[in-house]
Amino acid sequence: MSVRLSAVCPALSAALFLAGLVSCDSSRMISGIYQSDLPVVIDGVPGLDTPRYFEMMLAQFGPDITGIVRVYDDADFLVPSSEVCPCRFVENGKVESSSMALSFRSHGDCPGSSGTPLIIGRFTFKEPVVVDDEAGELLSGTLELQDAGEPGQVDVTFRRARTWRQVGEADLKCGDPLLYADDPPETGDAG
Amino acid sequence: MTCRAAFVGILVCLAGLITAVPVTGSEVVRPASKKVILIPGRDFRIDPDKLFFDPSEPPPRLQEMPQLIREASAVLAAEPEIELVDLSSGQPVSAPQGTASRHLVVMGMLHLGIERYRDIRLPEAISSLEDGISAALASDSDVLVPAVVSDLYLYLGLSRLETSEPDLAHIALKQMFGHMPERRFRQGWFPAREERALRAAALDFVKSPARENPFESTERALGFLRERGADALVYVFLESDPEGGDRLETRVFEVSRKDAGSVEVMRDSRPYRGVESVSMAISSWLACADLPSRTDTLKRLPRVFLDTGFSYSMFAQDNSTRTGFHNIGLSIGTAYQIQPGLDTFLRLSFYQAREDSYGDLLDDFFSFRASIGVGYSAVFNWGRVFTHFGFEMDYLSGFKSSTEPRCKLWPDDPDLCPSSQVTEPSFLFGAVGLLGVNVFVSRSVFVMVQAGISGYFVSNSALVDLNFPFVVEFGFGYAFF
Hints:
heterodimer; A: mainly beta; disordered N terminus; B: Porin; eight-stranded antiparallel β-barrel
């Protein structure tokens, strides 16, 4: 059973409002949706060894980061890639100051894709700068396949397309029919 | 001084402070006996037809009022808790400091006025007599020595008649009867014009209501009592009953206990049946008077305290979130003083949890906390200091926490957030200790500040997750006596 705030007297709401004014939200600084400026190629990963556009929906909780990495075929981020599992959950995302590291499965989180190597991203959060006449927060860093070493690192820059306030319920879903279907196949690889 | 010595010193100071605190919630104040002044009575039963007596007969002596006053004095003096100041003799009495010479002035002005009247120096006579009357009013001689003031008015009236001011003479002669209605005159002593004027004044006086306040105003009566440090004044007078017979009237002017700046007047009216009437009247007042033995001198202190205010709480031990979370809400509490030093309390608090900075709380939640117990409390005039100890129950409505970030983003998805990663205590039960103070800002309204800590030993979840909440509260309250 849960009692909601609306059932409490208005005075309590006023007290909470005052308390809310003094609360701090700096621990959500990185949260939002980021899109890669340029197509990304990661050698050694089927489906990603050709140019793809990456979109990261990131949610920061203090020192932790979670979210979803989506792969698109076009620069407008309208066409989810049909050749790879388009949805990958962020694993082991960590934030320290303005540096961030996260990982996600190279083959995605579609059924049957668990256990595939991780792609590791290391980024630095940058305050708003003007790049190509567009202003926005940037995540600048690298993506590399697990155990690939420095030669396999790919430089990437992500620009914040939406703040956390602009993230909706649909953005929190992978939307992968294989994952969310009523009767998903037991195995399969979107790639 | 070593640290140990300093510590011992602090303990000794605290012990002294505690022992200095009164352990009783009340104190008894024993006032002195009630100081009562008895002033001369007056007999307003005037028969204008018998105003003048035959010179061949001895002057009538009206003895009833002196008997009544003696009886009243005896009844008052018999009451051990009455400190009687009998000023009823009608003779000059020792006056309060600074006023001792005033009566001499009155007497001097009277004699001077009489001399001037006899010398037919009427304007000077009138001036002296009026000054004498003013001095008499200032020294309360009109109340304590009414015969002298009556003489002043008599000669003032006679002088006014000589100066062809019959209206002013009538007023003066009427005042003469007001101060000494028992006056009778030898027939033929005054010329016919003066006798007519006296009879007319007597007739007018009889038709006028009796003067039940010899001071004219209660303010002056209050000043009289204050000047003499008295609590009450007894005044007795007789008057004719329009329906036949006589009535004994008794008035007691008493300084109000509720408002020391006012006077309460007790009125007793009864048929006059001799001295026992005054005895009954005085006894009737004494029976209900606020004598020290009957007065509730217990200084009452508040018994019930009701307060409400803002409350802040945080769990000192919190393994469910990494940074802890704040609880802000309202509380309402009551305490009942069972006996001096011991009270019982009930406290209800409603909190809304604030999201922690890491978002480990999966949702804001509402909680209800109730505590009940007993405690030590010292009640003072300025407020109350208390310590409360009791049991406490904390119901956490919808509490869910996790340090797993996926549980924060997808709390309802069992695939992404297994229930094993979520902590959900709902009920916590334990003991509480509170220390607080109430400071009165008016007789009943007080400001409340208190702080405390609880320790839970029963829960529907692992106690190690959430325990030892401390609380700070601030608010206002009302004390019931």
